[in-house]
Amino acid sequence: MKRLFLLVSLLVLSKFSAQAWATEDQYIQKFAKYAVEEMEKYKIPASITLAQGLLETGGGQSRLAQEGKNHFGIKCKEDWTGKTMKHTDDAPNECFRVYEDPRQSYEDHSIFLSTRKYYTNLFNLNMKDYKAWAHGLKKAGYATNPRYASILISKIEKYRLYEYDDTSSTEVLYAVLKMYPDLKDDRAFMAQLEPSKNISKKAKDAVTVEVPYKQTSYAQQQKRVERIKTKAEILNSILIKTHPNDGLRYIVIPEDTNVKFIADKFRVSESRLMKWNELESDVLKKNDIVFLESKNSSGNTAVYKAESGEDMHDIAQKFGIKLNKLYAKNRMDEGQKPSAGQLIYLIDKKPRN
Fold it and tell me: Where does the UniProt annotation place the signal sequence (predicted)?
């Protein structure tokens, strides 16, 4: 009887052990694509993103991942306006973000890292140096576990996640197949590699747009639909940039839109965007510069010659300087416009004549 009990126990333990091993591999197979897509958009190593996802979700099995689609343990913070859930982490019943799907969690993780000042130094690191990124995340306070960096590095090296740092979003599934050759017998996975299936996937993931009805020919209406859809897709591919003025995070608007769209996309309140960018209207035009954090009081270069047609707001946005500070430095009244060729002081105050 004791031998039978021991045999059953060993079988159960081996089953659980196998399941734990399979769970992490299956997580990589499912989410490597998201990690590479985010790497292309935000310049965060796919290996780091995947390792964090593996660790934070326990291979996709954590309560936060299962119920909240939250793969990175991101807490609510003061700027979160979406759904929330209570979960015990560092303290009982802490507030965590809830997402509609894992893809949204992956993008929010990228936005979270790329828009907060204490992670700025990460983006000065070599994108292929996963060890430096792991230690940088720990140093910046991403997690409280003193072994956080070494755990990330261990997972990256155990599963060779660094290989995904050298691939692209169009090739990542082939990289996964190379890593897991048995997937050639997985019909669902292989279907993703077929062009016809890829077209269906793109259609499924396409941006939903509303096209106002207008009585016209079918061909004209279809052209209109494509034009609007293309604009929406362009807006959804906006990349966060790092400004030379102390690494401020900003974006360049690729198509006409409004503040609400940008606020929703980057999880920032409309009022903050309006304040940080000194906007008088919620309308954003193509090529407008929009900062995702408060601008600085000074520029990173001493002076600038105003170009024809530029106003002080244009210059403030170009150099990441608060508009009221720019007026004060140049002894100008609010609303006063510079003349073409006028020397604009960005660091020190303009000398008195």
Answer: 1-22
